[in-house]
Design a protein that fits this description.
This protein is α+β, with helices and mostly antiparallel strands. It has four domains: about 70 residues, Elongation Factor Tu (Ef-tu), domain 3 (Beta Barrel), CATH 2.40.30.20; about 70 residues, RNA polymerase II/Efflux pump adaptor protein, barrel-sandwich hybrid domain (OB fold (Dihydrolipoamide Acetyltransferase, E2P)); about 230 residues, Rossmann fold, CATH 3.40.50.300; about 120 residues, Orthogonal Bundle (Bovine Mitochondrial F1-ATPase, ATP Synthase Beta Chain, Chain D, domain3), CATH 1.10.1140.10. Helices cover about 30% and strands about 25% of the residues. It has 15 helices and 28 strands. Strands 8, 18, 21, 22, 23, 24, 25, 26, 27 and 28 form a ten-stranded mixed β-sheet that branches. Helix 10 packs across helix 11, helix 10 packs across helix 12 and helix 11 runs antiparallel to helix 12. The longest helix has 25 residues. The radius of gyration is 27 Å and the shape is globular. About 0% of the residues have low confidence.
């Protein structure tokens, strides 16, 4: 029997869980099509002649006895030009109208939006080529150059290369050995794309958010988690990262979040001017929208689809940032499906393989040297939404095992309208030392010392604030009171940042370092004045408004701000 046409019959339907009989030759993670609507479903278990599937579409209307057809391939993403600047669902199918989730879709590509792409050759026929070699580029496919590469595991003589001109979506642009290469390729989303080696040279990721870049920086190719309860500003922070970080390509996956939030993301990216290219920000962004009202198991696949798209651009030599909001909703999909299959629940009902699933996602991050010798990176930033803000719940604790940094959001800071509400006591970064060494190599030898001093002031200020609540601020010695003042100035003048400000929404590395140094210098001057006998109360009641407003200054204006502040402080003595 031909495996492409072999059919079985549905025996049971329970939401996204479907069981089928008489499907000979079916393999794990193969995609099958269910019923007349050809609803895609993935094989997750095989036993006793019964195949268990998770359906990626609404299964209403499926009946016992409906036909099951094999495709003989795993769940795959169709990679090629036309990804940038568009919105897709969790299976990388274009979303051109709403609400598309009400009408189940097949996995067949929809190329009606284009009659072809303009291909410009960039190789020489007759020469041997290997995986990742550039065959040419496609123009008009986004804000970054779209490079057509030899697919992984393909090598041989370049026997044919198309001439410059328009190429159809299904046409071959090259023939490598006996293999025809087109503009598009299918790649299994659960299989990491190969690379030659991991790159040892370190490069930091600049996010544009001072609290992250100055205190909890990460490197390109790292993975970090953003845990925080409801209302702490996770989505806004992730949107700021997507808009302002120094990546070449952004892949934003809305995993189980509210549809209005995804609409806001899309609207802002469409209107925002890209500081790197001068065009629109969305032209170098791929958006995967699997909102809370869309099919549940497509949510489970969406994070792997997103990381596959990121690896595709990584192989072109780009730095890609994957923003996943939120992995908790993804884990909830795993838990719901596991309960339907009767799997033995682990902690809080999550499946026992939750840690393995998280590792399969986060460990695909990295800065690598591709098979063709280019350097590319995939950085993963995943939000975690613990119920009730409980950071000891399974998804948060398991995630922390596989990431290099944690940007924990604090409810009290958010309620005090301090944004980004990143907790300096609960957050950390394992890349901070490497960033300090990189900064020293670039000539910024004081970066690590400034960070250490700021962290010390913030930690000591937090300890003294707790003590002051018991004994009162005025009972403390002057230097301790200046430490508390220094913590407040760091919070208000450096760590707080307005996403609505045209100047302060993003902060360059130079301006952030200069602002931090200014505040530390002011704290040192206050300590000196206390030693001279100046009243601590007078310093606490000093007008610090000009210092707090310094975060709106350009780097060149900070020197003038510094001189004015120092003169005003000196006048107190």
């Amino acid at each position: 029997m031909d495996t492409l046409t072999a059919t079985g019959r549905i025996r049971r339907v329970n939401g996204p869980l479907v069981e089928a009989d008489d499907v000979p030759g079916a393999s794990m993670y193969e995609v099958l099509e269910l019923g007349e609507r050809r609803i895609p479903a993935e094989v997750v278990a095989i036993g006793g002649g019964t195949v268990t599937l998770q359906a990626f579409e609404y299964t209403g209307g499926l009946m016992v006895g409906d036909t099951v057809r094999r495709t003989a391939r795993p769940l795959s993403a169709r990679l090629g030009p036309g990804l940038l600047g568009r919105v897709f669902d969790g299976l990388l199918r274009p979303l051109s109208s709403a609400p598309t989730w009400l009408s189940p879709q097949t996995l067949e590509p929809d190329d009606s939006a284009t009659d072809g792409w303009h291909f410009v050759p960039g190789a020489e026929a007759g020469r041997p080529v290997g995986p990742g070699a550039v065959l040419g580029v496609v123009t008009g496919a986004g804000a970054v150059e779209h490079r057509v590469l030899v697919p992984p595991r393909v090598r041989g003589d370049l026997r044919f290369l198309a001439a410059a001109g328009k190429v159809g979506t299904d046409d071959a642009v090259a023939r490598v050995g006996d293999r025809e290469v087109g503009l598009f390729e299918q790649w299994p989303v659960r299989l990491a794309r190969p690379f030659a080696s991991r790159e040892e040279a370190f490069l930091p990721l600049h996010t544009g958010q001072r609290v992250l870049d100055l205190l909890f920086p990460i490197g390109a190719g790292s993975a970090t988690a953003v845990p925080g309860g409801f209302g702490t500003g996770k989505t806004v922070l992730l949107q700021q990262l997507a808009k302002w970080c120094d990546a070449d390509v952004i892949v934003y996956v809305g995993c189980g979040e509210r549809g209005n939030e995804m609409a806001d993301v899309l609207g802002e990216l469409a209107e925002l001017a890209d500081p790197r290219t001068g065009g629109r920000m969305i032209d170098r962004t791929v958006i995967l929208a699997n909102t809370s009202n869309m099919p549940m198991m497509a949510r489970e696949a969406s994070v792997f689809t997103a990381i596959t798209v990121a690896e595709y651009y990584r192989d072109m030599g780009y730095h890609v940032v994957v923003v996943a909001d939120s992995t908790s909703r993804w884990a909830e999909a795993l838990r719901e499906f596991a309960s339907r299959t009767g799997a033995l629940p682990a902690e809080e009902g999550y499946p026992a393989d939750l840690s393995s699933a998280l590792a399969a996602f986060y460990e695909r991050a990295g800065r690598v040297r591709t098979e063709a010798g280019r350097v590319g990176a995939v950085t993963v930033v995943g939000a975690v939404s613990p119920p009730g803000g409980d950071l000891t719940e399974p998804v948060t604790t398991a995630t922390e095992r596989f990431v290099r940094g944690v940007w924990s959001l604090d409810r009290d800071l958010a309620y005090a309208r301090h944004y980004p509400a990143v907790s300096w006591s609960a957050s950390y970064s394992h890349d901070a030392d490497a960033v300090g060494a990189w900064q020293a190599e670039q000539g910024n030898h004081g970066w690590a010392a400034r960070r250490a001093r700021a962290m010390s002031v913030l930690a000591e200020a937090a300890r003294l604030n707790e003590l002051a609540e018991i004994v009162g601020t005025r009972t403390l010695p002057g230097r301790e009171r200046m430490t508390m003042l220094g913590g407040r100035l760091l919070r208000d003048a450096v760590l707080a940042q307005s996403a609505l400000s045209s100047v302060d929404a993003s902060c360059s590395a130079g301006r952030g370092s200069a602002l931090l140094q200014l505040v530390l210098d002011v704290v040192d001057r206050c300590m000196t004045l206390i030693d001279r006998g100046v009243s601590a109360t007078g310093l606490e009641e000093f007008d610090w408004g000009p210092l707090i407003r310094a975060r709106e200054d350009a780097p060149a204006d900070l020197d003038n701000r510094r001189a004015a502040l120092m003169d005003a402080l000196e006048a107190l003595s």
